[in-house]
Amino acid sequence: MKSVCMRKLGVALACLSLTGLAGAATPAAGAAQAGGAMLGFTARGAASQRQLEQRFDALLSAGEIRAWLQRMSSEPNQVGSPHDKVNAEWMLAQFKKWGWDAHIEQFDVLYPTPTNELVEMVAPTTYKATLHEPPIKGDRTSGLSGALPPYNVYGADGDVTGQLVYVNYGMPDDYKELARLGVSVKGKIVIVRYGGGWRGLKPELAYQHGAIGCLIYSDPRNDGYFTGDTYPEGPTRPAEGVQRGSVEKMQLYPGDPTTPGYGSVPGAKHLPLKDAKTLLKIPVLPISYADATPLLKAMGGPVAPESWRGALPFTYHVGAGPAKVHMLVKSDWSLKPIYDVIAKLPGSGDAGQWVLRGNHHDGWVFGAFDPLAGMVTELAEAKAMGTLYKQGWRPKRTIVYASWDGEEPGLLGSTEWAETHEQALREHAVAYINSDTNGRGILFAGGSHSLQHLVNQVAAGVTDPETGASVQRRQRAVLDVRAARKGASPELKQDAKLAGAKGDIPISPVGSGSDYSAFLQHVGIATLDLGFGGEANQGGVYHSRYDSFDHFDRFGDPGFKYEVALAEVAGHIVMRAADSDVLPMRFGDFSHTLDRYLKQLHKQADSERKAAEAQHALLDADAYKLASDPLHPVGPPERLSSVPKIDFQPLDVAAKKLKKSAQAYEKAYNASAEAGLDIPAAQLAKVNQLMGTMEQRLLDPRGLPGRPWYKNMIQAPGELTGYAPKTIPAVHEALDMRDWNRADQYAVVTAHVLDGYRAQLDRLTALLKQ
Ligand SMILES: [Zn+2]
Asked: Separation of 224 CA from ligand 1 center, angstroms?
């Protein structure tokens, strides 16, 4: 499900052409040659760990990975499809063959499938949408049957007819603009383009504004011939390509809508549909730009604002009408089985601590890029670790590899599993490493900041296939080049400055969109989300019939070199977390990052205050009216509420104290490392137990306001973004919603959580000093 654009946002690294690099990297100079200290290891331990990683790398095979991808994407593998189950059983057999203790865990989830769909324009002329993706020359699976028709799962069933209104991306600001144009969507059918935020927000906001139905299309401006040659000539979305996808209100809670907060184990009690809060109330369907063209072309009313105009060859109008559409959606709402494959390699000394790794295996159709490109790298890691295990390697901690089902509809497989095993995970799990899509490009890393240094140390030791430089060196070059561009954001410039010539590349906060959510935001496990991307332009086939093996083989990662690179990065991270004497976490990095997030909050409050004052001055001077074209009148904006002084003091104090504690911790750890990490076993076990549960201290058991499932007070998907992360979310979103009292209230709540985190960190430091 991961939004392709997330990769770009996340590290702000992708989409930079290779030219920016060529000058910098020469193979000899740049090649991965990270030596020196390894976080969490003694000097001798580090040396043997590097040897182990070399043996691991030698066991990875691009050819084998390619063959697995072809096999797993050879038939449609959406939830409930025969091949989805076949893939689960095949992976189970592989894990067992490779020496893992593996089993399948089944959950019975609410997963509606379409039994009837229709979109037809009934006025001013008639047009029946094909809702079909025809076979494409040179794409061998594109003609196969058994695929799910274009569908937005968890939209409501319905049979509605109404005039069309075009609302751009259908995000909150678009409705403010629509109001200024004097157009309402009440009793209308909304048509919006993909992009700009989580697709589920589009029909939800349409419903909240009184619409009776919603159509979501891919505009070639964002996703098609404007972005590059269309498939099969190039990688981008062809005119008939459709982006399927969930519209679940995941920002409330992910997983099975009818089992909020508990696992959909067979026989579990499911809420009646009317009580399932993450289901939508209006019908919604995705369409191609081939099907959207006659509909949008038949619209009148105001000309769309410039920023709303896409790349289709006509003037965009907002409506309402005269285009009138009849849409119908009918679904089978029965429960369906999903199959998570869970495999364990038992640890030795610290077998009670678990290092988890996961990727989903269900696609929307063939799922070659999303998710199988990530899944087969995980399999390659598992095979290599199984071989090392047979050769006598025994990781200190237990390693758990998972292949999740049902991710596409709403992170079902990972969420139901995490909810079912929540207690055991809180006791045993110390880290969760996620991946999803993968392709040519730059390493993306997001998640818990305490793992930032581990990612950087590993990325410094893995070679980037295209340039021969280290993966980290290439990240740094991209960051520096982007930060030097005109108009680069202050955050980006600060990232580059922080990373400097030798420092760590900052990892990103994560919101939602893949299987890390339950682990980081509900259970409180230190979590990473990883993947390469940004060069392959895979967005064109995202969630369509054309996300096939042939497309990935040609455009995604020709030669499967980045598949091997991801297996190296993720595999090394897992093995270091499993083998280190002291868990490879650095809490000073979290403290640094927290200071940045806090600074952003102060900045936002100040800029909101200035914006309100400026707007009030313009309104009081009647400037909007005078500036508006009387023939095409645009009303003044809604008056913003004034911004009082927000009391950030509790947060500022907590962050300051935390910084002191983090410095004391780093000092104690460095002293211990210089002394060879010679810590008595019982004390060491206590040290690792405290480190492994630090992320849990960032949770508030009451959760975020209005959405208690999300308990992490530092990272969460935005309530009005769905995908994109909000840092210090309870306060950040209160500012977004101009709820100043809530901002003050949650500044206190979040400060209290940080104090708990600091108290545990101080205990850890005291232990290290003993
Ligand atoms: Zn995915």
From this structure: 20
SS3 352: strand
Side-by-side strand order, sheet with 113-123: 127-128, 113-123, 319-332, 158-166, 189-193, 213-217, 284-287
Which residues, including other chains, have CB under 8 Å from residue 432's CB and lie 6 or more apart? 356, 357, 358, 516, 519, 520, 525, 526, 527, 528
Q: Ligand 1 mean position to 553 CA, how many Å? A: 18
CA of 340 to the centre of ligand 1 (A): 15
Task: Give CA separation, 189 vs 119, 219, 280, 285, 549, in Å.
Answer: 11, 18, 15, 11, 36
- H helices, E strands: number in the chain: 26, 16
Give dist(CA 211, CA 356) in Å, integer: 43
DSSP secondary structure code for residue 521 in this structure: I
Instruction: Tell how far the Cα of 1 is from the centroid of ligand 1, in angstroms.
Output: 4
The candidate with the shortest Cα–Cα distance to 508, out of 597, 408, 601, 410, is: 597
Q: Residue 545's closest CA among 365, 409, 407?
A: 365
pLDDT of amino acid 721: 87
pTM: 0.94
589-637 pLDDT per residue, tens: 999 999 999 999 999 999 999 999 999 999 999 888 888 888 877 788 8
DSSP 63: H
225 CA from centroid of ligand 1 (Å)? 24
Within 8 A by CB and 6+ apart from 581, the residues are 40, 41, 42, 45, 396, 677, 679, 684
Cis preceding linkage at 708, omega within 30: no
